[in-house]
Each structure stands twice: as structure tokens, then as C-alpha cells.
Amino acid sequence: MKVAIIGGGPAGLYAAILLKKQRAQAEITVYERNRADDTFGFGVVFSDATLDNFEKYDPPSYRRITQEFAYWDDIAVHFRGTVHRVGGNGFCGCSRRTLLVILQERARELGVMLKFETDIDDESRFADADLIVLADGINSRFRDKHIEHFQPQVDLRSNKFAWMGSTRPLDAFTFIFQETEWGPFIAHAYQYEAGRSTWIFETDAETFARAGLEGLSEQQSADRMAEIFGWFLDGHPLLINRSMWRNFPMIRSQRWVKGNMVLLGDAKATAHFSIGSGTKLAMEDAIALADAMAQAPTVGAALQTYEHGRREEVEKTQHAADVSLVWFEHVDRFWDFDPVQFAFGVMTRAKAITYDNLTLRAPEFVREVDKAFAKQVRAKGFDIDIDKPQAPMFQPLKLREMEVANRAVVSPMCMYSAREGVPGDFHLVHYGSRAIGGAGLIFTEMTCVGRDARITPGCTGLWNDEQQAAWTRIVDFVHANSAAKICLQLGHAGRKGATKLMWEGMDRPLEQGGWDTISASPLPYFPDSQVPHEMDRAAMDRVKQEFVAAAVRGEACGFDMLELHCAHGYLLASFISPLTNERTDEYGGTLANRLRYPLEVFEAMRAAWPAHKPMSVRISATDWVAGGVTGDDAVAIARAFGEAGVDLVDVSTGQTVRDAQPIYGRMFQTPFSEQVRNEARLATMCVGNITTADQVNTILAAGRADLVALARPHLVDPSFTMRAAAWYGASEIACPPQYLPGKEQIFRNSVRDRQDFEDLKIKGKPKTRAELKAEATKPLAAE
Length: 783
Ligand SMILES: Cc1cc2nc3c(=O)[nH]c(=O)nc-3n(C[C@H](O)[C@H](O)[C@H](O)COP(=O)(O)OP(=O)(O)OC[C@H]3O[C@@H](n4cnc5c(N)ncnc54)[C@H](O)[C@@H]3O)c2cc1C
Ligand SMILES: Cc1cc2nc3c(=O)[nH]c(=O)nc-3n(C[C@H](O)[C@H](O)[C@H](O)COP(=O)(O)O)c2cc1C
Description:
The protein has 783 residues and is an alpha/beta fold. It is 41% helix and 19% strand. β1, α1 (10-22) and β2 form a beta-alpha-beta unit. It is globular and about 85 Å long. The mean pLDDT is 94. Flavin-adenine dinucleotide is lined by residues 6-12, 31-34, 41, 44-45, 119-120, 135-138, 141, 161, 163, 200, 265-267, 273, 276-280, 282.
């Protein structure tokens, strides 16, 4: 077998090593345009877990790498004169040059041919090769040459960064957030060998321009950075090596394989430097390729296996990197945070590290986070313990005069089980059991303001006395038997009305017994859905009155709070999104115009709703479609409702149009809540794929939302909050006397369960740096 590898970076060299180990007879050649020791950059960083992988696949190179590594456990966050250190992170760094020299030596040892100073510009010279590996890096010539086939998407990010070095010793992965007269600068720094550290400087485009960095030479910009970070560099110089300022390209390729050619490493996909995974991804690509080659019968089949098997893992890492880079791009959102909360946000930005996880490895730090959170709650007038504070989830919140005992919320969920809009026994048990289950706040399902405002024939309503009496029974039960507050969500289905029950065909038009629908514009939801009537002024007035009348009835029922549903493509949302609003009057066109009618409705309801009770609005913060509502629009929408008197923005997303492309994942809508909360400076509730109390605490402690709603988890577990209270020892949680023995038992058992869990986690922890070091000095067994 003949293998040609273009590019002698970590991906190309490691692929050569692993393939040669597999097929000693194969003729494997690496072509590298640079000289052997002619490499840019300073250090690379790997986690302990990545090193475990290297150990498994090639012990000799693993041992040499680990002998050369600098190890550290701590992450240190410097912000506004404070330092917060968190241990137990298990990272190590090595010089990129040393890594490449080790891989080159190992490749040579195995019989791989290395051809340096050989710039390849045409793959046709490898016509006789069975496999051509394109590991030619971030600016891959071959990816671009076959651009139509590989279909790379390049997202050039807005921040500027430069990669430098220093002799400054560091004993932790160090983030420095530095205020300057021009704006914020960030340093990501770590030591990779004795007397050498990597320094990546990052700033936004405006700060970059204000600081006059445009057009400076590498040395001049190093001097400028040395001035800014001089207090920390402590007399050590900054070193340069192709350290020009750049914008990071996030690259994703639609295809990785063309015939017998395959993209590896940065050539196929990149991951932002802030999660330090570029070299890891490159080398793990090589592992995946070698695995596929070992198992599949032909090269073609192996390349398919590689692409299909590897893609998900790469996309997961890229997603984490995206979330992380967005955090750094928007660091100004958190600039006025308490430093410990800021540091918690840095630690948890990419979702992998959570509140519980940090509690295990840095309990003191989490205690500080809890205290800072409790202090903020106390400053709002609550008489709570700040020396031994509860976890954030169990801290109270006040909206106008309404106090909720904890931050867990049952998200609004249609049960499609009402008759003529009247909630029945199912609803009483449904809401009642979730209230008893401990959530601080319960939302009703979207309750419709008129018969024709319903989504389906099973939706609840609040337009007549019978419905009012039925809702009063539920509200009374909740108030009599729990500490939960209950919020009425009012809505109008608009063009998504007259559709089937969820389990008979979500959003599908009714075949019989439907009614006429209305919307901002006459656009059907599905091509075969009913074409809605475009609302005229008379319809707008009528519907506004229906909302007000339902709000008045809601007050009579005793609801504690009122929410206006302006999300998910229903009537009011259809005005807000440009995808569903094609009006040419003053209710269409600009965002201000599109918001006009929803705001009119909100203001009319606010005037009718008691001043001491809060109101929220649910919005779709993005349509997940180009040309639709974006996160920036969501901030403007929230601000407009804020000026109209909204107390809480309930930040959901999407469901506006059929061809949306949401990016799902854990807590996938939380970034929008974070943006609205910290840019519009309004209280927010986040929702969407939040399934654990650990996530709830992580979100709250990082200042990404004020309340956290869970929908589907509550469908199967009405006592989600009670269980969480037991786990975190929040014994104050209310419980009806009938259920007290159950509460006592779960609280008692939780102490032991938690201990068992912590023991297990500690046992399952990856090898420590001390263990790795000891191994690195062990004699090498025959390979
Ligand atoms: C600022 C910054 C900081 C980073 N920090 C880290 C970090 O801390 N940890 C980490 O793991 N990663 C980090 N990375 C990422 C890391 O450098 C890359 O992800 C990694 O090197 C990718 O390996 P690769 O083999 O795919 O590509 P490269 O390392 O770029 O190797 C590609 C090779 O191909 C050669 N080549 C290109 N074209 C040709 C051609 N036509 N003919 C012959 N040879 C060719 C190039 O000379 C190069 O040697 C960082 C990146 C940046 C930009
Ligand atoms: C069965 C069901 C019904 C729903 N009905 C409503 C509703 O009436 N009003 C609303 O705003 N959202 C509704 N939603 C959306 C949820 O409130 C929530 O935003 C969404 O399910 C994401 O949260 P989750 O991942 O915790 O389930 C519903 C969701 C489900 C699963």
C-alpha cells in the first residue's frame, strides 16, 4: 500500500505513525513544505483525557511527549484586581516544536519517509497512491482546490487575536481580563516548558482599532501588549514568531472525503483556541482514520467509516468551542459582574464544567460563588443566610410584590385536554402535583383568549365564566397546598390555529370542525394549512380586547402573575418576525413597526392587570433562519417590552416557520437568555433542554438567567424540585403535611446518595499529573 500525506503538522505525522504501525510494509510518505524544525507558534495544550488516548495508540511517542510536558492542575482567573484559582483541571502543555520533533523521530523510527521543503500543489503526482491524506492545515490548499466538493463554510470571527510567547513562568492556565483606556483585552496564557509560556492576546475589533494596533509591526504590538500586561509579566519579555493579529476562522466542511483523498485536522474543521483543542482534534482525527483503516475491507469503505464515525465528535467539540468563543467575544456583558461570579462564568462557559463538578474539585470556590449570589439576593431585601447560603436554585426572587421561594419553574405546556376551553380534573391533578412537587413558579399552558384563538380543540381558554371557575379551582388548590406561585400564560394561536391535538399531528390543520384563522399576513404555516386572514384594525381591536378581558378574568381567578405569549409563531409572534409579517402599514417593515401591535396588547393588559403583580413576555429570541429574528433583535424586543413595564423576559426560540434550523444541544437556548439579560439588563427566564438541577445552578450562578424553566422534565417528574432540594440540602422547601414522611426520607437518603456519588466521581477521576509524571519516568517496555 502507498500512502501520501500532505502536511507534516500533528495530524499528518500522527496519521503516518499509526498507519505505519498497522502496515509495516506500506510505503508512507509525509510531504512538508517547511524545514524539519521550522515551526511557528509556541505551546500546545492537552487534557489528561487526550493523553490517555495517546497512551493507548502509541506508547513510545506518548512517553516522550509526557516527559517533555509541563503540567498544571489549576485555572486562574485574574479580573479587576482579584485572582480566583480552581484546581483539578489536569492539563499539560508542550512546545509545538518539541511535539513535532518527537512525532518526526517516531515516524522515522517506524520507517515513514519524511520529505521536508516540499511544497505540494497538485495531487496528480500521487496517482499511484492508495490513500492521499490532506493534512495541510487551516488554509488547506487542497480543501480550497476542491471547494465545490468539500463545501467548507468559513466563519471569520469578529475578535482579533495574536499568538506570542514569554519567559514568564506560570503555575496555572491563566486568564487575565484587563481593562484599558481603549476597552477590554484578554490574555490566555500557560507554561509549556521550563522558562517558556504561550500568550494568546484577544480583543474586540473596536478596542483593537482604538488601541491603534492596526498596522503596527509584530514587535510594536508585542511592546503594546507588554505595556498593558506589564504588571503581570513582571519584567519578562514577550516573544514573537509570526505573531500577527488575525481573526479566527471557524471552519466546517460538508464533506471530508473525495475518492481516495481525505481531510484531516485543521484542514477539515477548526476549534477555537480558547478551548485548546486544535491539536487534540488533529491527532484524534489521525486515530479515527487509523481505526477505520484497520477495520474496513477497502480504503473507500475506511474513509466512509472515518467520516461517519468521527463527525459527531468533531461537531461536539466545535460546538463547545463556538460557545466558548462567543463568551469571549461578549465579555463586556459580564464586565460589571462580581469577580467571583465572573470567574464562575469563565469556568463554566463551554458547558463541560458545571456547578456540581466544581463543587467536587473546588468546594471553597463554589462556596464563594454561593455567597456572592446570596449577597445579591439579600441586597434585594430578603432576610437570608449569607454565611451558609443555599445553592442559587433555592434562593428566592421577587418580581414586583410576588416572591417565589426558588428559581425552578414549570414551563408552560399545553395538555390538549380541555373541553370547550374548560380545564378539567386532569389539569387539576397536573398543576396541583407539580405545585406540590416544589417548583417555585408554575406556568399554565397557553390559555387562549377566545374560541377562535385556540391552537387545537383541546386547548384551555379564559373567555367565559365556566372556564374562569375551573381555573379558580386550580389556582385555589395550588395556593392552599403548596408555596408555588402560578402564572397565567395568555395567547392567541394566529395562523397556527385550528390544528390537530399534539398526538394526532402537531400543527397539522384540522380536517373537520376547524375555524377561520388570522395572522399578521396571509401566509399559511404548511403549504396545505389554512390561509389566515390578514388582520385589519377592527380585528386588532377585537383581539386586544379579548386579551384584556382574559387578563381581568385571570385576576379574578387569583393568578399571581401574567404572561403574554409572543413566541413560537403564534399570533403576536407573527407580527414580530419579518418572516411572517409582510405588512406595508405601520405594523410591518421595521422592528419598531412589527412590535407595535404586540406592545399595544401588552400595554392594554398591563393597565388592566394589578400594579403589584408582575407580567412577563415569552419571545422567540431567534427564528433560526437567515433573515429572521436574531439575538440582537431579541435584545431590542426585550428593551421595548421593558419600557412598557415587563418584569421578566421568558426567552425561548424558533417555531416561527417550518424550514428553521435550530442548533439543539444541552441548554441550547440559554445563550439568548444570557444576551438579553446582560445587554438589555432585564430579568430573564431561560428554557430548553435543561434537564438537571446542576444545570439550573450553573446557569443561575453564572448570571445567565434569573429563573430556569423546565418543560419535558416536569412531565415525568412532578417532584423535580423536591428531589433537587434534597440533593442540595435545601430543607426549607415547602411540603404539604400529608407528604412529610416522604420528604424526611428523601432528605435523609440524599446525604448518603450524595456521598456515594462523590466517592464514585473521585475514584473515576483521570490520572493526576503526579501519576503521569511517575509513569513518564518508568523504563520503556518493548513495543
Ligand atoms: C493562536 C492559536 C493557538 C492555538 N493554541 C492551541 C493549543 O493551545 N492547543 C492546541 O491543541 N491547539 C492549538 N492551536 C491549534 C493548533 O495549532 C492546530 O489546530 C493544529 O496544529 C492542527 O494541526 P494540523 O496538523 O491539522 O495542521 P498544522 O499544524 O497547521 O499543520 C499543517 C502543515 O501542513 C503544511 N502544509 C500546508 N500546505 C502544504 C503544502 N501544500 N505542501 C506541503 N506542506 C503543506 C504546513 O506547513 C504545516 O506544517 C492553536 C492555534 C492558534 C491559531
Ligand atoms: C407538550 C408540550 C406543550 C407545550 N406547550 C407550550 C405552551 O402552551 N406554551 C409555551 O409557551 N410553550 C409550550 N411548550 C414549550 C415549553 O414551554 C418549552 O419551552 C420547551 O418544551 C423547551 O423546554 P424543555 O426542553 O424543558 O422541554 C410546550 C412544550 C411541550 C413539550
